[in-house]
Amino acid sequence: MKTIPIKGTIVNNSDVEIYRWLGYEVTAPKDILFPEDNSEVTLEINSPGGDVYAGAEIYTKLRAYEGKVTANIVGMAASAASVVAMAANHVAISPMGQMMIHNASAGITGNAADHKHLADVLDGVSAQIADSYAARSGKSAVDFQALMAKETYFTAKEAVEQGLADEIMFEDDEAPAAVAGFGILPTAVLDKARKLMGTEQDEPISKTHVTLNAEAVAQIVKDAIVPLQNQINNLKKPLAKENNEHKEPQSKRFFF
Prior knowledge:
Elements: E1 2-7, E2 9-10, H1 16-21, E3 26-27, E4 41-47, H2 52-64, E5 69-78, H3 80-85, E6 90-93, E7 98-101, H4 112-137, H5 141-149, E8 152-155, H6 156-161, E9 167-168, H7 187-197, H8 214-245
Parallel strand pairs: 1-4, 2-3, 4-5, 5-6, 5-7, 6-9
Antiparallel strand pairs: 7-8
Helix pairs in contact: 4-5, 7-8
């Protein structure tokens, strides 16, 4: 299975080499290359979005591909990158991943008529984007237009609830593969382990103390995982709130 990275800013084909020469991580439509045998491909997405028309070209290429397309959102799928994800047959998102949707934006110089015309164009582009979300989720495009108007960030769980993603990665695992920077076991768990090992509070643990059976080990692991998982769950809402409060600066180009 081929993996196609959608990383960094999404830019058009004519600008991509300039960005790379300057050291930026970017993705352009011409980077999306498919296997000749139409075999399954996986998108690995971590992107803040970018050029709306470059995103539309990538979306169209993915929709036209005859093979199965799976999108794995491993970090952020924001703006145009969220539209790219909508082209996949199946969308999975990391437990720590997020999606962000908002209206298209641009900046021009000109008279009042020019600005009014641009406003109409942007309204049309934003409506098309809302349609792409509605087509995947089965929900109303009007609902997504309202969410786009206030620039909405979705946690992994919220993305699935909105129908923008199909599943949360690793959700069926018995324990998380990584514990988001934690790893310090609760005191109660450590005390229980010491008791089962036959050691005192300050006594060093040696191999001679370890006489645990499988049932005891399983109980220690369970006691350790539950509090850590609760810590992760408690952080999700503040993290989403923080992301809402610290918005990215608005670009002056026709970006989404």
